[in-house]
Amino acid sequence: MAHHGTHFWLIRHALVAENARAMLYGTMDVELCPHTLERQKPDYQALANTLPRTAHWYVTPLMRTRHTAEAILNAGYGETELRISSGMIEQSMGDWQGLAHADVHQRLAQPAHPFWPLAGTERPPNGESMQDTIARVGPTMEHLAQLHPGQDVVIVSHGGAIRAAIAHALGIAADNALHISIQNISLTKLDRLPEGWRVNTVNGLV
């Protein structure tokens, strides 16, 4: 018997500009790297050819996700409505946003994670920990699954939020989630089935 559920196609936004990569940018509205956008046109075409035509599309309030979505649509997918999901925005770094990575290291209350500047439970002042991000993204994914039962949902989001979605699906802790690397413009496929969450693909089409 076929399983019926909501099928999520999560795409991390394109690489940001070089000056933004030198700092902890979190939810800052930074620009994409124009050279990478041009060089990776074949990847956008591959995504345009892969994503289901009847999908509901979401971006976050940050322009880097909208511009990435538009690049995919312009690469052959065609026009579609881009709705905004604030719940899928990147982890907020609060007062630490805009700081150079070395300067952030000096402010940590806990040892840094081996693969991320912050431990999973470290919360920057006026920001979010990775644990907080999972607690936000998980209910967002559940809500979207209820909103679009038996349908496809494309979300152009962020590395932290996609890690959080995988963590919610697998029921793993924040520090475990930070061991997952999410590449720019990669595809992660998750299914919300009646039996529970299923992880199909992580970092596809990279």
State the main characteristics.
six-stranded mixed beta sheet; Rossmann fold; 206 residues; globular; single chain; 6 strands; alpha/beta; 17% strand
Helices and strands in order, then pairings?
Layout: E1 6-12, H1 18-21, H2 34-39, H3 41-50, E2 56-59, H4 63-77, E3 82-84, H5 101-105, H6 130-147, E4 152-157, H7 159-170, H8 174-177, E5 187-193, E6 196-204
Parallel strand pairs: 1-4, 2-3, 2-4
Antiparallel strand pairs: 1-5, 5-6
Helix pairs in contact: 3-4, 6-7
Structural class: alpha/beta
* Beta-strand percentage range: 15-25%
Sum up the overall morphology in one term: globular
Percent in helix: 25-40%
Strand order of the largest sheet: 3-2-4-1-5-6
CATH superfamily: Phosphoglycerate mutase-like
Q: Terminal Cα separation, in Å?
A: 33 Å
The name of the CATH topology is: Rossmann fold
Task: Give an overview in words.
The protein has one domain: Phosphoglycerate mutase-like (Rossmann fold). α3 crosses α4 and α6 crosses α7. Helix content is about 35%, strand content about 15%. By secondary structure, the chain is α/β, with parallel strands linked by helices. The longest helix is centred in the last third of the chain and has 18 residues. The protein is globular, with a radius of gyration of 17 Å. The chain has a six-stranded mixed β-sheet with strand order 3-2-4-1-5-6. It has eight helices and six strands; from the N terminus they run βαααβαβααβααββ.
